[in-house]
Amino acid sequence: MIGTINLPQASSMAGNVDALYSFILIISIVSFVIIVGALVYFSYKYSRKKSNPDTTSYIHGNTALEVGMSAVLFVIVMLIFAWGWIDYKKIRSVPANALEINVIGQQWLWNLEYKNGRQLTNELIVPKDTPVKLIMGSKDVLHSFYVPAFRLKQDVVPGQFTYISFTAIELGEFPIFCAEFCGTAHSGMIGKVKVVEKADYEKWQNIWELEQRLGVSEASEKSGEQVSPVERGKELFTKQGCTACHSTGSNKLVGPGLAGLFGRETTLSDGKKVSADENYIRKSLMEPNAEVVEGFTPLMPTYKGQLSDEELNHLIAYIKSLK
Ligand code: CUA
Questions:
Q1: Is pTM, for the whole model, over 0.85?
Q2: Residue 201 has pLDDT above 90, yes or no
Q3: What's the CA-to-centroid distance between 111 and ligand 1, angstroms?
């Protein structure tokens, strides 16, 4: 379709949205050509010529033409309105059998939780040809859940739930963007929707559920013995959004890279030197702006009350492991 050439139509409503978009675009182009064409033509036709210094004659209005044109324009605008309304109703109506998934936006990532308790970060896996309803909330500020390939966008608002519903009709991976400026790492708040065959989806969930029951699943609460603190810390590191601002290498993002940080002497913005030990990392998480590393801005949100002591230990274990 015009204007959306490189974007797959990966949801059942994408084609409808594109059709209306193209209709409006074509009407706009045609109107532009007619208006600008007439403007140029009349400018020339009625311009005062050197050979003819007479005043241009006064032209009266044409009631029939004016009423007729208004009527035609009114019909076109109402057609666009009705078309848009019908598709909007389709997009907003959720089939009763829709697969419900919770989405929580936060600075600066997407947390997803399935009904069976399975949690994913920045990756939404859905079955093809199945209606899905995302029930969305925000932990902190306004975000907007945007999947261009589905032609869907919805604000995610703190203090209330919003939703979107879609049926994916194409296999593959499609990016999720945050379409509402939400702070420093807004542009890094990127996820993906992975559309898989229905059978593969069921298998993927069934295996996980079985593993949960048997207590052999990786990184599950029930099988603490099988997962090392480093692995759990690594998971937390992604889940808590650390990755938006901190690389696990040495390159600077919004915050310092964390490789080799542990045990190193660090210079703070007030010139003070501190050794990056357990207490330093704890303080960095709970009171992030108390000790800011030289050359960085105090932007980190606090994790006070959001991490259990156990989780804090896991995160520290993981940071320690980054060489
Ligand atoms: Cu979240 Cu922009």
A1: no
A2: yes
A3: 13
